[in-house]
Specification:
This protein is mainly β. Helices cover about 10% and strands about 35% of the residues.
């Protein structure tokens, strides 16, 4: 079986590779274009990335979305990838310059977004052992992120940035939290 993102027709199409033909009706649940799809390692779940700023998980057997969409990106999501163990899915937020990790079981974000590229992030991929996430960007850079990040999102944010964040940056990357001066490099 193969899955393809339908782009502006807002669908995901499944294909019977051996028969070289569509396998059933297209999947529809996104409110805008679908730019990326990925199967989990077991082939039971499918993830989709959309212009509607969301990631959706799909039950392959029923061909229905699993719960509400995963939200948090501020711009269209353009790429998704499952971790080798299938417990997490990564997403690239394109022009929000972030990649995010999601816990598949709880459907919640894992830590804080990965920030550090100077331009849109177009793709995400896991290392075969799941210890590293790779992101590629329009800034012509590939970054490798260790997934052994601190459990505390604020500490992780300080570690990733390596400098104090402005209130605007804080609002962009931690929209659910009020601005805090917490990084060791920050002065009160």
């Amino acid at each position: 079986m193969l899955a393809t993102a339908g782009g502006t027709d807002l669908t995901i199409r499944l294909w019977d590779v051996a028969g070289r033909r569509p396998a059933g009706a297209p999947l529809r649940a996104h409110d805008d274009a679908v730019w990326g799809v990925a199967f989990d390692p077991d082939g039971r779940l499918l993830a989709s990335a959309s212009e509607d700023h969301t990631v959706r998980l799909w039950d392959f057997a029923t061909r229905q979305p699993v719960g509400a969409p995963l939200t948090g990106h501020g711009y269209p999501v353009v790429s998704v990838a499952f971790s080798p163990d299938g417990r997490q899915v990564a997403s690239a937020g394109g022009h929000d310059f972030t990649a995010r990790l999601w816990d598949v079981a709880t459907r919640r974000p894992v830590g804080i977004p990965f920030i550090g590229h100077g331009d849109a992030i177009w793709s995400v991929a896991f290392a075969p052992d799941g210890s590293t996430l790779a992101t590629s960007s329009a800034d012509a850079a590939v970054r490798l992120w260790s997934l052994d990040r601190p459990a505390d999102p604020v500490a992780a944010l300080c570690e990733i940035a390596g400098r104090p964040l402005t209130p605007a940056e804080w609002a962009r990357y931690m929209p659910e939290e009020a601005y805090q001066r917490v990084c060791p490099q920050q002065t009160p």
